[in-house]
Amino acid sequence: MDTIHIRGGRPLNGTIEISGAKNAALPLLTAALLTEGTLRLSNVPNLTDVRTMGRLLAELGVRIEREQGPDGEVLALTTPEITSTLAPYEIVSQIRATFWVLGPLLARVGHAKVSLPGGCAIGARPVDLYLKGLEAMGAEIELSEGYVIASAPNGLKGTVIRSPMVSVGATHVLLMAATLADGVTVLENAAREPEIGDVARCLVAMGAKIEGIGSSTLTITGVKKLHGATHRVISDRIEAGTYAMAAAMTGGNVLLSGAEADTFASALDLLEEAGVGVEVVNEGVRITRNGHRLKATSVATEVYPGFPTDLQAQFMSLMTLADGDSEITETIFENRFMHVQELARFGADISLHGDKAMVHGVERLTGAPVMASDLRASAALIIAGLASSGETVVNRVYHLDRGFERMEVKLSACGADIWREKA
Ligand code: EPZ
After folding, report:
1. CB environment 81-107: b (16+ within 10 A), e (fewer)
2. Cα(332) to centroid(ligand 1), Å
3. Contact (Cβ atoms closer than 8 angstroms) between residue 206 and residue 34
4. Architecture of domain 24-230
């Protein structure tokens, strides 16, 4: 297994190009199942999660070709017919978003057999909201031997679905299912994450009728067929936020090129509160910090537009060196604090109390061998390593490669002493 090595203590200076958003690209790829036409996606990040999704889609009948567009590489996805409706355990257990093929498969061919999902070990992560929503649209659902077997022999029917809690995945699945359903579907208490808006805009370009994009009520009028379209994936707000925290922690001056400030405004506000320089410029967002110690700042994760759970670990890393005590509350996932014990190896002072982590800022961190436990936690360890004296070795970096494109390359271009050792 590859390892990432860091000799910390150097400020970051330069430009980091922000990639396309993983969490928009994954559902966008599944939209190819909804039409025989060709869906062309640009700005798709080159990540293992994207390749895993590609492998599943190919098994279901999607032809994937790479083309050269004016704007870089384009993935052209064409699904003349669905050749299989089985999403097997071997794939779905690796990344949770592959479970989301359930929506488009049911919508296009009226049946699907999809393994219950896996993904990062950050909580129980049930799928009851997806299944209740599809049942409300007339699907029959059976659970058997770890699989969801769903059928809608008479097609899906539009209805009003009020979700008792906000779920990104359930919103993606029900939105796609509704595009081809008979009649009007209203999704109340829908997720408002920018990735949902991005998918909805792509579906509209494919001929779907969707109102309320960007709000918590989506109204979808089903159409008979969707067609091909061309769409550029939005920039990755979590990657941008991660590098913002890295620059804040090491000090320096970094331009996050292509970052869309309004998609991670809560994180930028928090950084400003902590004493980080944030400037929105034409090309993206500039992050600066010169020398002085950051102020300890408290935060609770929330659904969008609140502070994202996917930046909680990275912010905790930052707060380990702040002046004072910060309280970090995780409200979305019940087990997303596995980075705490790894941050302690650097000398961080953190105690856990249920869904709260109390971080007492220390003067300095020292490099250590550490182990990545999940995708965003890996990034938090890298950030800590960049700001520590001595050498850090991050093990199990396959977690990192699921969601960050060439992280060590992007960081070393800004002056970090970081490299990958191949296993
Ligand atoms: C998406 O996961 C993201 N994944 C996650 O990013 C992100 O952390 C999460 O949304 C929250 O923003 C992708 O976009 C691929 P949810 P998802 O359904 O859809 C509970 C990363 O690091 N819930 O919004 O799985 C659930 O247990 C990943 O890139 C139910 O109870 O998240 C959780 O507590 C990790 N029943 C809460 O809702 C359900 O049926 C929010 O989960 C569904 C969800």
Report:
1. ebeebbbebebbbbbbbbbbbbbbbbb
2. 8
3. yes
4. Alpha-beta prism (3.65)
- In the reported structure, the alpha carbon of residue 345 is separated from the centroid of ligand 1 by a whole-number distance in angstroms of 29
Instruction: Summarize pLDDT for 256-278 with one digit per residue, the tens.
Output: 999 999 999 999 999 999 999 99
144-156 mean pLDDT: 94
Q: Who contacts 318 (Cβ-Cβ below 8 Å, separation ≥6)? A: 245, 248, 249, 274, 294, 383
Ligand 1 pocket test: pick from 22, 48, 332 the residue with the most ligand atoms within 8 Å of its Cβ: 332
The whole-number average pLDDT for the span 363-373 is 95
Tally of CA atoms within 13 A in the half-sphere of 66 that contains its CB? 7
**What pLDDT is recorded for position 334?**
84
Cis ω on the peptide bond leading into residue 305 (within 30° of 0)? yes
How many Å apart are CA 241 and CA 314, to the nearest integer? 9
For the chain, percent of residues with pLDDT exceeding 90: 92
All CATH 3.65.10.10 domain ranges of the chain, comma separated, are: 3-16+236-421, 24-230
Instruction: Point out which residues pair with 161 in neighbouring strands.
Output: 187
Q: Looking at domain 3-16+236-421, does it have CATH number 3.40.50.300?
A: no
**Of 16, 95, 120, 365, which is the active-site residue?**
120
Give ligand 1 pocket residues (Cβ under 6 A): 23, 26, 96-97, 120, 123-130, 165, 167-170, 309-310, 332-333, 375-376, 403
